[in-house]
Amino acid sequence: MNKYACSHLNPSIISYNSIKIWIGLLLHTQQLSIRNRGDLGMTVLNNAIAYGMARLANIQPGDVVVDPMAGVGTIPIEASQSWPNAVYYCGDRDKKCVQASQNNMLKFVLSLN
Predict the structure, then answer these.
(1) Which of 9, 32, 50, 69 is buried deepest, with most CB atoms within 10 A?
(2) Is residue 15 in some structural domain?
(3) Considering its fold, how many domains does the chain have in total?
(4) How many CA atoms lie less than 13 Å away from 10 in the CB half-sphere?
(5) Strand duo 12-16 + 64-67: pairing
(6) What's the pLDDT tens digit per position in 71-87?
(7) How many CA atoms are closer than 13 Å to the CA of 73, on its beta-carbon side?
(8) Residue-number span of the structural domain to which 72 is assigned
(9) For residue 39, what is the domain's CATH number?
């Protein structure tokens, strides 16, 4: 990774002792906890973790992203927020999760307008 790719991270020292130093990095400029889902399932993936997973996937414009176990849609919603030029498909075997995912996506889309 070149120095320009990391320039926005703004490292700060969290803690240190005589042997170790812990450094924190700002990975996202927007507080992820404000993008809450309205409908929740039995287990809900944290928004920041979903964002991190999408970031690790290195999504590019035109990519097709498939989440076959989407639950309430956290990963596709978070990914589409930061990488809008990809195509997202999601599904789940639980009909309640599919409905919750649809409701959350609708809530997310309406919040953009």
Answers:
(1) 50
(2) no
(3) 1
(4) 5
(5) unpaired
(6) 889 999 889 988 999 99
(7) 26
(8) 32-112
(9) 3.40.50.150
